[in-house]
Design a protein that fits this description.
heterodimer; A: alpha+beta; BirA Bifunctional Protein, domain 2; 2 domains; 7-stranded mixed β-sheet; two-stranded antiparallel sheet; 18% strand; B: alpha+beta; Phenylalanyl-tRNA Synthetase, Chain B, domain 1; OB fold (Dihydrolipoamide Acetyltransferase, E2P); Phenylalanyl-tRNA Synthetase, Chain B, domain 3; 6 domains; 5-stranded antiparallel β-sheet; elongated
Chain lengths: 359, 810
């Protein structure tokens, strides 16, 4: 039997391609595929006839049917992609979220670090770079640690200035107190470590005082350097470098005035030009400092003819207020959420020297 | 300490300006708190005469006056509203452009009701010379030849007043002369010689006996007491110049005799007292007080005396506190004709103690408690006698002295090189020498081994460091060259201790979980302290600022819970607050511990709080805070699974909905749970609160290990997960189920998670619950066969049953 190969195949191909292109959806396309390439499909049927053909024809006809099959397959795939894409589009068109709905920002955005903690981290960062470790000590102290060893004997007028909180006397008649400065930490450090010493001592201190600008508890940070050569010139340099780094400005105008503290000799008070915080024309007193008094060294078992060094002390809360423009000290300890949210710092605001203290 | 410029110039020959003096004083340790300079403030105001005055055409209460503002100049037309303005009057005129301090305006040229005023006639209030005034200043005719001159100059009001905040170590500067001496040393002039006194020592013996009446161990209270009587004085107001100075520095002139003592106190830092000699009975003696004694003080109040206080007494009893305040009855009045002048030395410590006990703050106490120059007893007496003779006349007697001045001539061995060693400032030997000498120090010997004699008026100078301070403060702290502190390492090393690092990390971690950091008081109410396991007598302040702040806190929760209430009262109910700080188990240093505590109130959950379209936040519960604790411990490098949870959190937690995390029986790492309703009620907290306390000091130290991480043990084989649901008794702990399941095959079972708890339905009636767990198996070397998986599953079921009695749910 002969097959009118060329005519049949061309017609069939045209018919099938037409059916494929007019299939409106995936099921219709699948029906076309089954009718063409399915087991009993029209193309498969042609293949089944191959066996009955003479060898010569078998080759040519077989090749022609394969070409037809490929063309149909390709057309089916192409149409399938088109239909799938449009089906997806149709589905996506129905899937619309209101992207204007507000979302929760999550805990990292909610949490805050207290300004005093943040500023302490900043200060530690600066002094760490100059080789200062951080020393700590107890809040409840003895008269000896808070006063006597610091060269402030009983009845010294400086004791009256300190407005000390006392506990009731114990059975031996001595009474403990709340440290009025972090200087006892200096005593503890000098009594237990051999020079060279470079520490800062931050912490809570207490004075029996409460008004607009004073709270019965506040934070101090003191510094201490003891070795055999450190002098007042080093002290000035450290304070100047600290102020520039802390206020993040190229220059800070500083004024060193002679003063008096029982535990340092010579003693100085230090003012900074308030342009550092954007208020030109004013001087702000920020710290007291001096060379550690020979009596204090002696009280800690250090020979003042061999060892010398400096100490300084400043208010951490005050530094915080100055740098960040916070008006009221009392609010620091109120636990007021509005205040803490406003003046507090984000979790990721980790102060570093490389990345900037406040940026 | 206040003084005026002219007063300073009595002692200091200087041409320096007020600003120069003020800057230098602050630089050398005599901090100027303020300068009241009327001349600078009021320099533009001049003496003028109103030549003609007539009514303002457009205003009933105003006048138009023609003013002679300077001799020979055309008259100025000024509008004036003062009722006392009249033709011929001498007054004070301010030209246009003048700032009027009392009304805080600058005069501008503008018409007043149609008439342009070329200036203003001023009142005392407008010049801030009086609080209020009726009309303009009406000057006496004696100002007639000063028309056109500055009013403050003409009126002698231009003596600038300095106020210096003295540090307690400088008694010498409680007198103007001491301040002048410092300024002279600092190069701002020359210290003038002491004035020559007339004859002050009389011929007759002092008719009043003076005695020191102490035991050997209290004799320091008043080691010397000198006196002299001046007979036949005529007391009355002191001269105008003295009154002006006293007033300028805030003193009220009394009468010449008293004013002389006050003046010398201010001028020399040498307090004195004057008695009406006719009112004294018997000998005047310094002694300690006796119980029950009292006297009427110059302040008009009765003062009780005790046995620690030094008093001056006569036969009638105590007359006054030595070195603090005299008595009213024995004091000198305008009627006094015979006066006893007292010049003594009182012990600084006893004076301070008496002053504190009595609460009396007087000029005498201010000086004696700092340490008056002991060598000034006789010169002070003589100076007072001289001034009294000059101002009040009379005849002096001989001086009578009991005791001896407590002068210890301190000599300090000093190497000039010490200045540079301690300050880094290199000064010439000549400068060091001159500075010390100008301050009154006597120098003997070579510069490298000098003997320095300390002047009697400097009780604060004891050693070489003090001398260095004297030199460097006068030289100027600004001359000390800033010198880099040598770096110890090229690149900075870490300085924080492990504990400090942990505290830092915990702070950031808690903030990252949505907590806001608070800093609350270290002291709380005693009731709150007791409720939280504290409140012992040992931790109770003897002098608290209020009962709200009286007990050292045993933990951080009372402060945080109080803050919750405060925020709720400000309409913030859903708050998550934490604090990281110290608390106190006792008064010893070791009793202080570091705690990180947090509270979640209302619906302040990790995801947020309050209502939200995506689902509201629930009321906080024990699991919210358990998660906080676990997250914190994990962040600190601990595996919380290695700790045990016990059900014995302290009494301020809900007994059934709280836990304690421990390492062994003794080490408590943390408490967590819902806060006991009774505790909330005690602190007035309305919302539900869940809280935790982490004891940072209790965490085991981090083990030193290599920085390199262990090799990653990741298998290419896929893990297999199997689910089981066990029915157990309601009180069986989920942890026990997990532990048992885990034990089934420690090598293969990688994790066990609880994915469902069901306590409802028929299980509830039986007192049971269903715990559904998922077990993940991680094959290490080969894919697990079904049989192997089945084997492990059977073992899990058996282990759970053995440990908890749980049956696999059908």
């Amino acid at each position: 039997m002969s097959v009118p190969a060329s005519v049949d195949l061309t017609t069939l191909e045209n018919e099938l391609l037409h059916e494929i292109s007019s299939a409106g959806d995936l099921p219709a396309l699948e029906a076309v595929r089954v009718s063409a390439l399915g087991k009993k499909g029209r193309v498969s049927e042609l293949m089944s006839r191959l066996g009955a053909l003479p060898v010569e024809e078998k080759k040519t006809f077989g090749a022609a049917v394969n070409i037809l099959k490929s063309a149909v397959s390709a057309a089916l795939d192409a149409r399938k992609s088109v239909l799938e894409a449009s089906a997806l589009n149709e589905r996506l068109n129905t899937e619309r979220a209101d992207v204007t709905l507000p979302v929760r920002l999550g805990p990292v955005a909610e949490g805050r670090i207290h300004p005093v903690s943040q500023v302490l981290d900043e200060v530690i960062e600066i002094f760490a770079d100059m080789g200062f470790a951080v020393a700590e000590g107890p809040d409840i102290e003895t008269d000896a640690m808070n006063f006597d060893k610091l060269n402030i004997p009983a009845e010294h007028p400086a004791r009256q200035d300190h407005d000390t909180f006392y506990f009731s006397p114990g059975s031996d008649g001595t009474r403990l107190l709340l440290r009025t400065h972090t200087s006892p930490v200096q005593i503890r450090t000098m009594s237990t470590q051999k020079p060279p010493i470079r520490i800062i001592a931050p912490g809570r201190v207490y004075r029996c005082d409460s008004d607009q600008t004073h709270t019965p508890m506040f934070h101090q940070i003191e510094g201490l350097v003891i070795d055999e050569t450190t002098h007042m010139g080093h002290l000035k340099w450290v304070l100047e470098e600290f102020c520039k780094a802390f206020f993040e400005v190229d220059e800070v105008k500083m004024r060193f005035r002679a003063s008096h503290f029982p535990f340092t000799e010579p003693s100085m008070e230090v003012d900074i030009g308030a342009e550092a915080i954007g208020k030109p024309g004013q001087w702000l007193e920020i710290l007291g400092c001096g060379m550690v008094h020979p009596n204090v060294l002696r009280n800690c078992g250090l020979d003042p003819d061999k060892y010398q060094g400096f100490a300084f002390g400043m208010g951490l809360d005050r530094l915080t207020m100055l740098k960040y423009g916070i008006p009221d000290l009392r609010a620091f300890f109120s636990g007021d959420l509005k205040w803490l949210r406003h003046y507090g710092f984000g979790v990721l605001d980790v102060p570093t020297l490389g990345g900037g203290l406040s940026s | 300490m206040k003084f005026t410029l002219s007063w300073l110039k009595d002692h200091l020959d200087t041409t320096s300006s007020v600003d120069e003096l003020s800057t230098k004083l602050s630089a050398i340790g005599l901090e100027v708190e303020g300068v009241e300079d009327a001349g600078a403030k009021l320099g533009a105001f001049t003496v003028a005469r109103i030549v003609e005055a007539k009514k303002h055409p457009n205003a009933d209460k105003l006048q138009i006056v023609q003013v002679e503002v300077a001799k020979g100049q055309p008259l100025m037309e000024v509008v004036c509203g003062a009722p006392n303005a009249r033709a011929g009057m001498l007054a004070v005129f301010a030209p246009l452009g003048t700032y009027i301090p009392g009304s805080k305006i600058t005069l501008e040229k503008k018409p007043v009701r149609g008439v342009v005023s070329n200036g203003m006639m001023c009142s005392s209030a407008e010049l801030e010379l009086a609080d209020d005034s009726d009309g303009i200043i009406d000057l006496p005719e004696s100002f007639a030849n000063q028309i056109g001159q500055s009013y403050v100059d003409a009126a002698g009001l231009n003596d600038p007043v300095f106020e210096v905040k003295l540090t307690p170590n400088r008694p010498d500067c409680t007198g103007v002369r001491g301040i002048a001496r410092d300024l002279a040393a600092a190069g701002l002039g020359t210290l003038k010689a002491e004035p020559k006194l007339g004859t002050v020592e009389g011929k007759d013996a002092c008719p009043i006996d003076i005695k020191l009446d102490f035991s050997a161990d209290t004799a320091t209270a008043c080691p010397v007491f000198a006196g002299r009587v001046v007979r036949g004085v005529k007391n009355g107001p002191s001269p105008a110049w003295m009154q002006a100075r006293l007033k300028a520095v805030g003193q009220r002139p009394i009468n010449a005799l008293v004013d002389v003592t006050n003046y010398i106190s201010l001028d020399r830092g040498r307090p004195l007292h004057v008695y009406d000699a006719d009112k004294l009975q018997g000998a005047v003696r310094a002694r300690l007080g006796k119980t029950g004694e009292q006297f009427l003080g110059l302040d008009g109040k009765d003062h009780a005396v005790d046995t620690t206080m030094c008093v001056i007494a006569d036969d009638s009893g105590p007359l006054g506190f030595g070195g603090i305040m005299g008595g009213e009855p024995s004091g000198s009045t305008e009627a006094t004709t015979n006066v006893l002048i007292e010049s003594a030395y009182f012990d600084p410590l006893r004076t301070a103690a008496t002053g504190r006990k009595t609460g009396l703050m007087t000029d005498a106490r201010y000086r004696f408690e700092r340490g008056v120059d002991p060598a000034s007893v006789m010169p002070g007496l003589d100076l007072a006698t001289d001034m009294i003779l000059k101002l009040c006349g009379g005849t002096p007697t001989k001086a009578k002295i009991a005791g001896k001045e407590p002068i210890d001539a301190r000599v300090i061995a000093f190497d000039f090189a010490r200045v540079e060693k301690l300050t880094g400032l290199k000064l010439s030997q000549a400068e060091i020498k001159t500075t010390l000498e100008k301050l009154g120090f006597k120098i003997d010997g070579p510069a490298n081994a000098a003997k320095i004699t300390v002047p009697t008026w400097r009780p604060d100078v004891h050693g070489s460091a003090d001398l260095v301070e004297e030199v460097v403060r006068i030289a100027g702290m600004d001359r000390v060259p800033a010198t880099p502190l040598p770096r110890q390492h090229g690149v900075t090393r870490a300085v924080l201790t492990d504990k400090q690092k942990r505290a830092r990390r915990t702070r950031r971690l808690l903030a990252a979980r949505g907590f806001v950091e608070a800093v609350t008081w270290s002291f709380i109410t005693r009731d709150a302290a007791r409720h939280f396991g504290g409140g012992s007598d040992a931790l109770e302040l003897a002098n608290p600022i209020s009962s709200e702040l009286s007990s050292m806190r045993p933990g951080l929760l009372p402060g945080l819970l109080t803050a919750v209430t405060r925020n709720r009262n400000r309409a913030a109910a859903d708050v998550a607050l934490f604090e990281l700080g110290q608390a106190y188990r006792g008064e010893k240093p070791d009793d202080q511990y570091m705690s990180a505590a947090g509270v979640r109130a209302g619906t302040a959950q990790l995801k947020g709080s309050g209502r939200h379209w995506d689902g509201p936040a629930d009321s906080v519960n024990v699991y919210d805070v358990k998660a906080d604790v676990y997250a914190a411990l994990t962040a600190l490098g601990m595996d919380p699974a290695k700790a045990q949870i016990t059900r014995d959190a302290p009494s301020w937690y809900h007994p059934g909905r709280s836990g304690t995390l421990r390492l062994g029986p003794k080490t408590v790492l943390a408490h967590f749970g819902e806060v006991h309703p009774a505790t909330l009620a005690t602190l007035d907290v309305e919302a539900p609160v869940a809280a935790f306390e982490i004891f940072l000091d209790a965490l085991p130290p981090e083990k030193k290990k290599t920085r390199a991480k262990p090799a990653l043990a990741a298998s290419d084989l896929l893990p297999v997960t199997r689910d089981f649901a066990f029915v157990v008794k309601k009180d069986v702990a989920a942890a026990d189920v997990i532990k048992a399941a885990m034990a089934a095959d420690k090598a293969l079972i990688q994790s066990v998670s609880v994915f469902d708890i069901f306590e409802g339905g028929s299980l509830a009636l039986e007192g049971k619950k269903s715990v559904a767990i998922a077990i993940t198996l991680q094959p290490a070397t080969e894919t697990l066969t079904d049989a192997a998986i089945e084997g492990i599953a059977d073992k899990v079921i058996a282990e759970v049953k053995k440990a908890t009695g749980g049956e696999i749910r059908g």
